Amino acid sequence: MLGLTTQQMVFILQGAGWTMVLSQLGFVGGSMLGVPLALSLTGKSTAARVVTGFGINLVQGIPLPILMFAVYFGAGITGYDPPTLIAAGMAIAIYSAAFLAEIWKGSIRAVPQAQWEAADCLALTSFDTLRLVIFPQAVQIATPPTLGFFVQVVKNTSYAVVLAFTELTYSARVVNNTSNQPFIIFTIAGVIYFFICFPLSNLSRRLERAVGKTRRAVK
User: Fold this and answer.
1) Nearest residue to 24 (alpha-carbon basis) of 82, 98, 88
2) Which tens digits make up the pLDDT trace of 140-157?
């Protein structure tokens, strides 16, 4: 098949499977970290906003491969030798949290001020205001860019090659080292990435248009 053995194709496809596992692990972890960060960025405490903003800018300014090295070898200093899946997943989670927090901060702030004022008129607590009024609307606004960012997370898993984790890019490189057909092998890898990412990108664009129509109708 395209000059490759069945075993080589299976190895590449296994790498694609681990790419999905790693991307989901990093995205879920990033989401769990991103929610409190977004709340901190939109909260009333100036000190919390400054500290959180500094941390987010710091993470955003560090290339993801360097962050992966820092997590992997940093854990080694403590005497714990993490599996490459865990180290890469933690690094992607930290990296994702920094960007998701910004996306969700913007979505929360995009909810019209009148909604906040209406919640005040109903004497809702801050928690109930967020839970019952703001979050449902912010989630609708945030869904398209969040899904779009997940596409970037899938692509960024390729950086796990620096830790020799067997995701799609690494498995393609290993197969190329044994068959020396770089054009065919990396074209196959690129096509697999496309079939993973394109449906997500297309869905993100459709959701963005739908949300835009809904918000215009409300106005």
Assistant:
1) 88
2) 888 889 999 999 999 999
